[in-house]
Amino acid sequence: MKNHLTKWLRAMLFCLAVMLASNVQACAICAPSDGQTTLLQRLYAADAVVMAEGQVGQNSSTWMPLALIKGPLPAGVALRNPMPLSPPDAAALAQSLSPGSDAAKAAVHVLLYTASNASWRSAGPLGLEREAWLRSMAALPRAMQAGVLDPKIQWPARLAALAPDLENSQSLVAQTSYEEISQAPFPAMRSLKPVLKVKQLSHWLDQPGLEARRPLYGLLFGVAGTAADAQILEPRMLRSLRAKAVTPTDLAAFSAYVAAYLELRGDAGLAWVEQHVLQDMQVRDEWVQAALQALRIHAEDGLRVSKARVVQAYALYIQSNPARAGFVASDLSKWERWEFTETFVDILKSRSAQVFSSRYAMVFYLMRSPTPQAEAGLDALRAQGIL
Fold first, then answer.
1. pLDDT tens digits for 66-89?
2. Lesser CB count within 10 Å: N end or C end of the chain?
């Protein structure tokens, strides 16, 4: 049984090592959870893209292609001629223009054609005056492929072109700007400082309906502001910590606030995080993990908060909360900070109550550690039946 467990642990360790070795650069806090549904990805996947005007009659709908953005057009379709549509496509596109819908006010839509099933779908309404913008989006290189950012992307120029359209009055434009900026590495977002406005970002953070975008706007608040603006974030973070209901968006927003706070205050900002999050055992695990995500980003960037200072905060966290000490073990392993080897061995030997994920993260840390103390500690844990 022990041999089986040891083999399982070694297999899991290998998987962990692969993950740690991968160069994931996209913003870990605000990148879209499903990058395949962004407008740019859908434009890339489509075989043809047109801007078409829709008209809905009592018994039928007609779509008139006005501009070819990407082609060629499928057989039977020509600009300025009504499009022949299958019944499902006609019904779907008519629904997009149904009375009362937001899209009904804008008869021109971006239509995407998929050759494999000969179908048309609307990406959403877009004013015809945005034709040049749509062409530029279709020509924009994809930032991410197979889950990894393209290292050739020129982020400052890309972000500068996208930022003016944040919260554009046309929802498709605003959504695209948000999606593409959200994929940028956090350090690259600093290039936007000259064009961002703290008051505008603060307004967006409070605006109903924009909750899903708070992670990005929280990060950009830290980029745009000064040290004095950090005070604005403290009550936001405290309200988050007191919240009873927690959603993934809430956690990402809190992580963004912590990252922004550290961006504004540097190493000095960690004292607040230590006091209110890392040393408070009443803080729920989800909030701790969200704060650690922010610390991790800054530690690996190193511009505003040093890795050494983050490791110091981690040491305080381990001392304050040994039952969850493993929450920081993966970072310490990745950074090859092996001075915590004996501490983790002692915590495991104590047989004290441990959060499951924390316990095994400490075991993985020991298995990666090259120190003789780690090997001796693992042997002792096996001998005592702990592993």
1. 999 999 999 989 999 998 888 888
2. N
